[in-house]
């Protein structure tokens, strides 16, 4: 939480007059298990799809995925960053040292409020002295990169997470693959401990 607040503080300090573009509102958060010795690892596996988190587990067991046209470049960029850090991609059944599980979701925020310009100057409301409702909405997308150690379990019996990269804000404004790539690159840039070289 402290890291997120720090990121927000840094973000607002970089743009004292406010952000001019949607990509300036993206937040990249990373965290890792300090007990994990990444230098002793070297192989990873990753699905060829990105799970779409909807909040409800489907009754038929069918999992939703991000469209390949969007997921493909993201997965390729993760591969590029992992390779640059000295990792070798292997099949899931090849006993990889770590597994990266990417997921994404989007949230639409709707605000509803009353415009009180009429109270200040009835000119704005055609001479009437009553507030009128105003609605606005925006979408925020999140990409999650969760790295787990498939050979370890946490106290709850699930696989232990050793690194996480979270990118928030990707659906604000129009979609840009370059914007997504920059955010993924930033997640790895601020995670130099992943470098096995």
Number of helices: 4
> What's the number of extended β-strand segments?
7
Any idea of the CATH topology? Double Stranded RNA Binding Domain
Count of domains: 1
CATH level-two architecture = 2-Layer Sandwich
Task: Give your account of this protein's structure.
- By secondary structure, this protein is an alpha/beta fold.
- The protein has one domain: Double Stranded RNA Binding Domain (2-Layer Sandwich).
- Helices cover 24% and strands 32% of the residues.
- The protein contains 4 helices and 7 strands.
- Strands 1, 2, 3, 4, 5, 6 and 7 form a 7-stranded mixed sheet that branches.
- A hairpin with a 5-residue loop joins β6 and β7.
- α2 runs parallel beside α4.
- The N terminus is likely disordered.
In brief:
This protein has 197 residues and is of the alpha/beta class. The chain has helices at residues 2-14, 68-84, 117-120, 177-189, and strands spanning 27-32, 43-45, 51-52, 88-89, 98-115, 132-153, 159-168. Strands 1, 2, 3, 4, 5, 6 and 7 form a 7-stranded mixed sheet that branches.
Descriptive labels:
197 residues, Double Stranded RNA Binding Domain, alpha/beta, 7 strands, disordered N terminus, 24% helix, 4 helices, 7-stranded mixed beta sheet
Helix and strand arrangement:
Blueprint: H1 2-14, E1 27-32, E2 43-45, E3 51-52, H2 68-84, E4 88-89, E5 98-115, H3 117-120, E6 132-153, E7 159-168, H4 177-189
Parallel strand pairs: 2-4, 2-5, 3-5
Antiparallel strand pairs: 1-7, 5-6, 6-7
Helix pairs in contact: 2-4
